[in-house]
Amino acid sequence: MARLDVTETFHNIMFPGHMHTKDSLNYAINFQFQDTDTVIVTYPKSGTTWMQEIITLVLGKGDPTIAQTQPNWARAPWLEQYYCVDVLKASTGPRIITTHLPYHLLAEALQDSKAKVIYVARNLKDVLVSYYHFHKMANFLPDPGTFSDFLNDFLKGAVHYGSWFDHVNGWTSHTKDIHNFLYITYEEMCKDLHVSVQKVSRFLQCNLTEDELMLAQKHCSFNSMKENTMVNYTLIPQEIMDHSKGKFMRKGKVGDWKNTFTEEQSRLVDDVYSSQMTDSSLLFKWEC
Ligand code: A3P
C-alpha cells in the first residue's frame, strides 16, 4: 500500500503533512486559550489518548457515555491539526485541547492564560519502542526502517515532532511560567491508576466520590480502552492506520523496551539521556 508520507517542516520541526498545514500550525501558535480550557500536552506515545480518556471520565463523574460515543479526537482535538478550528467552533462546554507542540511554540499563547495544562511524560525507551511500532502501522508516517535506524533518527530529533529531550525539557523547565500546571508520568498512571485519576480530578477541581472514581478508573483501564472503538483508532480507515500491521493499544506496559533494545542500544540511550538531561531533576521509572 502506498504510504501517505508528506511532511510539513515548521520552525524546524517535522509534522505529518496530511494533518498539519502551515495554516493549522499558525492557528495553533496564535491560539487564544480560555481560562476554562484543559490542555493535554505530550510528546507522541506518552499516554495522550489515556489522558484524553481520563479527563473525559473525570468531567463526566465516571459516566462513560461520552467516552463510548465520541471519538477521542473529536472530544479533545489536536490543536495543531487542521480540523481543530471547526471542532472548537462547534463546541459548547469547557474545551479539552490536545497538543504535541513543543513549549516554545505555545509559550506566548499560554502566557496570560489560566487554562489548566496537564503534561504527561513517559520514559523515552518505552516511547521509542511505542513510536517505532506506531510508524509501522500509521501510513501517514515515514517507514521507520529497522529499530536501529529509527533509534538513531529519534536520538537526533529527526522524527515527527522533533526531539523528545527538547520537548520534555522545554515544558518541564517552564512550569512556573504556566499558571495552572500538572506534571504526571505514564509510569505513575500505570502504577496506581486510582491515585492518578484522583490527582487529575483534584487538579481540574472536579472532585469525585469514591464510587465515581472507581467507575472512571474502570473505563480508562488498558483492557477497557483496548475494546473501546472510540479510542482504539479502529474507526480510522485502513489506508491511514493499518491495524493488520499492529494495534494502537499495543501493550500499555512500563519496561516493554527491554524486549526490543540490545544492551548496546540501551547504553547509547543512557549516554545521550545523561548528556541531554543534565539540567533536569526529573526521574523516570524505566521498568516496573
Ligand atoms: P504502547 O505502544 O507501549 O502499548 P499515545 O496515546 O500518546 O499515542 O500513547 C500510546 C501508548 O499509550 C501506547 O503504548 C498505548 O498502548 C498506551 N496506552 C493507551 N491507553 C493506555 C492505558 N489505559 N493503559 C496503559 N497504556 C495505555
UniProtKB/TrEMBL annotation:
Provide one Gene Ontology biological process annotation. catecholamine metabolic process
Q: Which UniProt keywords apply?
A: Catecholamine metabolism, Cytoplasm, Transferase
Start and end residues of each Sulfotransferase domain: 35-280
**Pfam families from the xrefs?**
Sulfotransfer_1
Question: GO CC terms on record?
Answer: cytoplasm
The listed locations are: Cytoplasm
Q: What is its EC number?
A: 2.8.2.-
* Any one GO MF annotation of this record: sulfotransferase activity
Instruction: Output the InterPro entries linked to this UniProt entry.
Output: P-loop_NTPase, Sulfotransferase_dom
Q: Which family does it belong to?
A: Belongs to the sulfotransferase 1 family.
Protein's UniProt name:
Sulfotransferase
Origin organism is Carassius auratus
